[in-house]
């Protein structure tokens, strides 16, 4: 029943049937009528088999086909074989779909599959709990009809999903969700919603703790430093306590510097919404930075500065000055006396670039990715001797994040380092001026 039916066998049967009709026609001396009658019978027989096939395909619920005869035996068997393959494929797809749903249900995040028109195709149980969906009633609904938040609607219309969106949970305003959207399949989107309430609470507690501790340390450090200065002034020049008092004074100064930088970092982290419409006179700020660099260098370094004329920007001057000052002091601290420090603020096609290039010993590649972490230092002993706290680059990183920029670090061992950042065109004064001139 399951053997294939070859074309040669089909032709041979047809030829044999026509030869029999021809032979009967010759014997009865009615060749034409016998051939005509045989052809009509053949057509009626084929029509009968076709009718049986049609009934089996559309009305008969049995899986096995009717018994075919002649050339139709191969047709029935072939269709039955294809049905078996399709059932096997459907079974495999159902198994894979079940595995996918099991994996999606095991995710710690809410998952929603959307089509190109942002209609819901599928969601897991956590999406029903966090986003308030009802499945399968919400199948085919537009997701922005269910999550009615202006920020979310704007996020969908913008169609720029590189950065996540933080949104209050629809069912509970006390919960904070981080929503990410990414391409999934052909013309589909996958929405992932994660509950970050606890993470944000811990971050807030950490910031508050650091700010409070730093603030509380300022007063005792000031008192200690005052008493140390008094004890130094009263100590005899040849006393063995002079050296100890000097070291205590150095460590107190270092701790006070660390506390001030922690407070500065806390202020920058807390000032999420800064005014980016305030003009910053970069020429004046670069002059101040140059004077600070010369004071830190104490004549032991070759300091060069270049400032593009009439190239100003918009932002928070205190944060920008803090970031630039930390980059410059960092370059001086990790460059041997006699080295060179090049400071520049210049115009690029992508905006305005501030860079600090030194001729120091350079940084190994494995350290570069971690330089902006709090308290991370490549050489702890040298940082301690030079008064480094490991917070300067962290302050620069957060300040630049508020100005739509990021810190770039290029360094090679033995060839120095370059710390730079680019302020985008929308915060540069000349870009705004050119746009008005063109209009």
Could you name the key traits of this structure?
single chain, 439 residues, five-stranded antiparallel sheet, disordered C terminus, five-stranded mixed sheet, alpha+beta, 14 helices
What this model shows, in words?
The chain has 439 residues and is an alpha+beta fold. It is 54% helix and 16% strand. The protein is built from 14 helices and twelve strands. The chain has helices at 7-28, 31-58, 71-106, 125-131, 143-146, 150-158, 197-234, 241-270, 282-297, 317-333, 365-368, 380-386, 392-401, 429-438, and strands at 110-114, 120-123, 165-168, 176-184, 188-195, 279-280, 302-307, 313-314, 340-348, 351-358, 408-411, 417-424. The strands form three sheets. Strands 2-1-5-4-3 form a five-stranded antiparallel sheet, with helices on both faces. It has a five-stranded mixed sheet with strand order 7-9-10-12-11, covered by helices on one side. Strand 9 (340-348) and strand 10 (351-358) form a beta hairpin. The N and C termini lie far apart (81 Å).
The best one-word shape is: elongated
Please work out how many helical segments DSSP would assign: 14
Largest sheet: 5 strands, antiparallel
State Rg. Answer: 40 Å
State the order of secondary-structure elements, H for helix, E for strand.
HHHEEHHHEEEHHEHEEHEEHHHEEH
**Strand line-up in the sheet with most strands:** 2-1-5-4-3
Low-confidence runs (pLDDT<50, min 5 residues)? Answer: 431-439
Q: In which range does the helix fraction lie?
A: 40-55%
Query: DSSP strand (E) fraction?
Result: 15-25%
- The end-to-end span amounts to 81 Å
> What structural class do helix, strand and pairing data support?
alpha+beta
Number of extended strands = 12
Q: If you average the pLDDT, what whole number results?
A: 82
């Amino acid at each position: 029943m399951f053997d294939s039916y070859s074309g040669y066998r089909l032709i041979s049967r047809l030829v044999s049937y026509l030869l029999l009709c021809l032979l009967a026609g010759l014997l009865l001396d009615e060749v034409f009528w016998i051939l005509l009658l045989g052809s009509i019978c053949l057509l009626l027989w084929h029509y009968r088999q076709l009718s049986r096939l049609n009934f089996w395909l559309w009305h008969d619920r049995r899986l096995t086909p009717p018994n075919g005869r002649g050339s139709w035996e191969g047709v029935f068997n072939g269709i039955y074989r294809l049905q078996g393959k399709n059932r096997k494929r459907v079974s495999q797809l159902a198994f894979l779909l079940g595995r996918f749903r099991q994996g999606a249900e095991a995710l710690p995040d809410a998952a929603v599959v959307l089509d190109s028109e942002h209609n819901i195709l599928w969601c897991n149980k956590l999406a029903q709990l966090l986003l308030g969906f009802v499945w399968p009633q919400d199948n085919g609904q537009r997701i922005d009809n269910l999550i009615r938040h202006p920020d979310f609607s704007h996020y969908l219309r913008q169609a720029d999903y590189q950065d996540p969106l933080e949104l209050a949970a629809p069912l509970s305003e006390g919960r904070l969700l981080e929503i990410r959207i990414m391409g999934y399949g052909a013309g589909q989107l996958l929405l992932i919603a994660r509950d970050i309430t606890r993470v944000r609470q811990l971050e807030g507690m950490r910031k508050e703790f650091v700010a409070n501790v730093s603030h509380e340390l300022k007063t005792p450090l000031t008192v200690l430093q005052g008493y140390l200065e008094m004890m130094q002034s009263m100590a005899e020049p040849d006393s063995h306590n002079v050296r100890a008092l000097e070291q205590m004074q150095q460590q107190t100064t270092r701790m006070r510097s660390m506390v001030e930088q922690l407070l500065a970092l806390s202020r920058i982290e807390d000032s999420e919404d800064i005014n980016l419409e305030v003009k910053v006179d970069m020429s004046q700020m670069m002059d101040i930075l140059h004077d600070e660099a010369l004071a830190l260098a104490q004549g032991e370094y070759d300091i060069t500065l270049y400032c593009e004329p009439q190239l100003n920007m918009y932002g928070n001057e205190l944060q920008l000055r803090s970031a630039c000052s930390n980059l410059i002091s960092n370059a001086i601290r990790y460059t041997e006396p006699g080295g060179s420090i090049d400071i520049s603020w210049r115009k690029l096609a992508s905006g305005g670039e501030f860079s600090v290039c030194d001729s120091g010993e350079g940084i190994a590649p494995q350290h570069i990715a971690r330089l902006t972490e709090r308290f991370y230092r490549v050489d702890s002993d040298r940082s301690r001797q030079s008064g480094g706290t490991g917070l300067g680059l962290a302050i620069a990183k957060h300040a630049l994040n508020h100005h739509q920029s990021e810190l770039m670090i290029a360094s090679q061992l033995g060839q120095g380092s370059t710390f730079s950042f680019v302020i985008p065109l929308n915060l540069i004064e000349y870009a705004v001026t050119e746009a008005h001139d063109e209009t």
